[in-house]
TrEMBL record:
Residues 170-357 form the AAA+ ATPase domain. CDD domains: AAA. This is AAA ATPase.
Length: 446
């Protein structure tokens, strides 16, 4: 047993998940173990001192998420180069306080001109690749029992689950299609829950000495402990430069452009931001409303051909440097349009799984209606449901879609609030909701 494994095994407070994380991303104890250069760390510390002013070692640890022993090594070198000096203690404390010298401030400004990144120390690209591969979405196999359990509270047909499960196991891109309102987006996002344990997401990665911000609170949801604080095994060996998160589920719709799939560089702040597919690594990337984007579908499909087949993507820095990154993503295309109108047969064949979401039958519609009533605190009324199915849908034939119960009942409750009637729904309210919700057929008759 090596020293690291012995150190981990001797910590009784660590549960199996904590031990797994500590082995996957052990907390670095030396500069060499960070995977970052001395020059990069000096520049990062100088920027933090310039931004935060005179700081204690504890404050710098909180800013950089590096061990105190590493910071002491770098600060000692910075003192020898006259970048940093030790200031007097305050309030009777004995903690050393570090501040920049005039030369150090000039160095910090020069460093900020090169890169405006001011956050936790990044992890090296090499380490990031190793962690992504260890957490791969392709390592977890989904079973029928797991799918049925995960979607037990959702009204969804077994044959649809029996298509989605094998599609996840295949590791190939998935194409889901069908009318708007059939639950494609909602179900696709929940599939991220089926991909195994939560994962480690770095705050940033470093390509050479260039940091790229990766963690994004929009897409990355940290796992919280019972007290409600983010889970961070700061002292047990888990590298806090990573955040322990739910597997990401990245969603983009009609706003997507090809530029969003490349590294972005903000010239005013001099900060690099990771593209969407990199933020989706170890999870799901859902391209919703396919065909509604400002970019032609064929161009969008062509962007994914190499990553889908090789599970590797290539990105470029503003300097022109090109480098490979893992493409460990379940890619899901979703559209309301006819798939054959968006892509040729050759590309559709590459996707493997084409899954249609369709309309509901009356029994399924009723089950969703009951769920919405329970969630919104409305007393279920079978006669009211019969009126909706037979009278409203009967007089104006429309497909039964999963979104209709939620939307119609929500609009009826809007009227109840207006009339100061607490959580009561009547036929008259549903008539008005129906007239407001649907357009076309009714107005054509008037």
């Amino acid at each position: 047993m090596d020293a690291l494994a012995r150190q981990i095994s001797e910590q009784p407070s660590m549960d199996p998940m904590e031990m797994k994380l500590a082995a996957l991303a052990p907390r670095p104890r030396t500069v060499e173990e960070t995977g970052l250069s001395q020059n990069f760390l000096q520049a990062l510390i100088a920027k933090h001192l310039y931004d935060g002013g005179v700081s204690t070692l504890r404050e710098l640890v909180a800013r950089t998420l590096l061990a105190g022993s590493i910071l002491e090594t770098v600060l000692a070198l910075m003192r020898s180069e006259a970048y940093v000096e030790i200031r007097g203690s305050v309030d009777g404390t004995t903690a050393l306080r570090y501040g920049l010298t005039d030369r150090g401030r000039a160095f910090a400004l020069e460093s900020l001109m090169k890169s405006g990144y001011l956050g936790p120390a990044p992890v090296s690209l090499t380490q990031y690749i190793q962690v992504v591969q260890a957490q791969s979405v392709h390592h977890h196999q989904v079973t029928q029992a797991q799918m049925q359990s995960a979607f037990s509270e959702i009204v969804i047909r077994d044959n649809l689950l029996n298509q989605l499960g094998p599609a996840l196991n295949s590791g190939r891109a998935i194409f889901v299609y069908g009318p708007a309102g059939t639950g494609k987006t909602y179900i696709a996002q929940r599939l991220a829950w089926m991909l195994g344990d939560p994962v480690l997401i770095p705050h940033a990665i470093a390509v050479g000495d260039t940091p790229i911000q990766l963690f994004d609170p929009i897409f990355h949801q940290p796992i919280k402990d019972p007290e409600g604080t983010p889970h961070a095994l700061f002292e047990q060996g888990y590298d806090p430069r990573f955040v322990f998160c739910q597997r990401p589920a990245v969603l983009t719709g009609g706003e997507l452009t090809l530029d969003m799939l490349e590294i972005s560089y903000e010239a005013s702040t001099k900060v690099y931001q990771a593209p969407l597919q990199l933020k989706a690594n170890n999870g799901i990337y859902l391209l919703d409303d396919l065909g509604r984007q400002r970019v032609a579908p064929v161009d969008l499909f062509n962007r994914w051909i190499v990553p889908m087949e090789s599970q590797q993507d290539y990105l470029n820095l503003a300097s022109g440097k090109r480098f490979p990154v893992p493409f460990d993503v379940i890619l899901i295309f979703s559209t309301n349009l006819n798939p054959s109108a968006l892509a040729d047969e050759a590309f559709l064949r590459r996707l493997g799984y084409k899954i249609r979401f369709g309309e509901l039958n009356a029994k399924e519609y009723a089950a969703i209606w009951r769920q919405v009533c329970e969630a919104r605190g409305i007393e279920f009324d079978g006669e009211l449901l019969r009126y909706v199915l037979e009278e409203l849908y009967g007089s104006s034939p429309r497909p039964l879609l999963p979104c209709h119960p939620r939307d119609l009942l929500s609009m009826a409750l809007d009227q109840a609030c207006y009339l100061e009637i607490s959580n009561q729904v009547t036929k008259e309210m549903l008539d008005l909701a129906w007239q407001s919700y649907f357009v076309g057929l009714e107005s054509d008759k008037s």
